[in-house]
Design brief:
- The chain has six helices and four strands, in the order H-H-E-E-H-H-E-E-H-H.
- The strands form two sheets. Strands 1-2 form a two-stranded antiparallel ribbon. Strands 3-4 form a two-stranded antiparallel ribbon.
- Strand 1 and strand 2 form a beta hairpin.
- The chain starts with about 70 loop residues before the first helix and ends in a 19-residue tail after the last helix.
- The protein binds a DNA duplex (20 and 20 nucleotides) through helix 1 and helix 6.
DNA sequence: GAACTCGGACATTCAACTGA
DNA sequence: CAGTTGAATGTCCGAGTTCT
């Protein structure tokens, strides 16, 4: 049983949510990514009746190289050095990248299975329909699929600020709706206050921007001409209330006294005592080649 | 109940292979 | 030679066990 109070387990249901977890954004089957620290309360829900047809299973994120301590303990590491776990246990000075073993070369593999379809996985039909009813092209989805999820839906309006940041589409017709590329902000989980998080990017949790396509509706929303003085032009009127809001800058949650207390618990313990309890009888001596613990060896 | 262990699912990497 | 495949290798979830 997962112990929610176990600091090792973190405060997130990382990577192995129920396949039908409705709090997770719809992701393409091409490359779904779990940013599981994304708190539900800060998500931009899909409007009623517009939930994606199925919430695909999210993908577990891994660091490229865990530190030796996390590796020994089979626990989640992060890219920062010292990693959060080592800091938490007071062994920051021992937090070093584990050494990767060189891959063998010259292993013969035998013939590959015939590909049945020409581009079976590329042409995977992805039915992403935004509320305008405009299906996003599979290629479009693929292009954005390696990027963070959009925990909100897009509406057939240019986002606020659109005109100041992106050139308006130029080849549309009156009343037509067209997909246009924009950059959307994404706030990684750890950006949301690192007081007790475990997962996330290395320190310096900056909002990232990533490419996405939104349906752009041509007039009646008139494209304002750029101002000669270079100032940003006024933004568009807000979308009707039934549309999901556009992403907003995340306002980090202040840690509650309870959060702090629970975090303190993990730190009050003598770090050395804790280290003795854990690190020195890890099973890393027995970490076998072949992933897992010897099963493929 | 908390801390720890560890089996195994899942992710990533990259050389071998394939087909244009 | 770029793109694909799939085995090797790595991470870490979470159930079970041990400890306090």
């Amino acid at each position: 049983m997962a112990d929610p109070s176990n600091p090792e387990n973190g405060d997130e249901n990382n990577g192995t949510q129920s396949p039908t977890d409705p709090t997770q954004p719809a992701m393409t089957p091409v490359h779904s990514i779990s940013y599981s620290g994304m708190p539900t309360m800060h998500m931009y829900p899909f409007p009623p009746g517009l939930m994606p047809p199925q919430a695909p299973r999210t993908k577990r994120r891994q660091v490229k190289n865990a530190c030796t301590n996390c590796q020994k303990a089979c626990k989640k590491c992060d890219d920062a050095r010292p990693c959060l776990r080592c800091v938490k246990y007071g062994i920051a000075e021992e937090c070093v990248d584990s050494q990767r073993k060189e891959r063998q070369k010259g292993i013969k593999r035998g013939p590959y299975k015939k590909r049945d379809g020409k581009s079976a996985n590329v042409d995977q039909q992805i039915d992403v329909t935004v509320q305008s009813g405009i299906p996003i092209q599979p290629a479009t989805v693929a292009a954005t699929s390696a990027t963070p999820p959009m925990p909100y839906s897009v509406a057939p309006y240019p986002p606020p600020g659109y005109f100041g940041q992106y050139p308006p589409p130029t080849n549309g017709k009156m009343g037509e709706t067209q997909l246009v590329p924009i950059m959307l902000p994404y706030y990684p989980p750890m950006y949301q206050g690192a007081h007790n998080g475990q997962e996330g990017e290395a320190n310096g949790y900056q909002p990232a921007f990533y490419p996405a396509y939104v349906p752009y509706q041509y007039p009646p929303y008139v494209v304002p001409a750029p101002r000669p003085d270079g100032q940003q032009v006024p933004t568009m009127p807000p979308p009707p209330p039934h549309y999901a809001p556009y992403p907003q800058p995340y306002v980090p949650k202040q840690p509650t006294s309870r959060d702090i207390a629970s975090d303190m618990n993990g730190q009050m313990m003598d770090p050395n005592a804790r280290r003795d309890m854990r690190m020195d009888n890890g099973r890393m001596g027995d970490v076998m080649p072949g992933g897992g613990h010897g099963k493929n060896a």
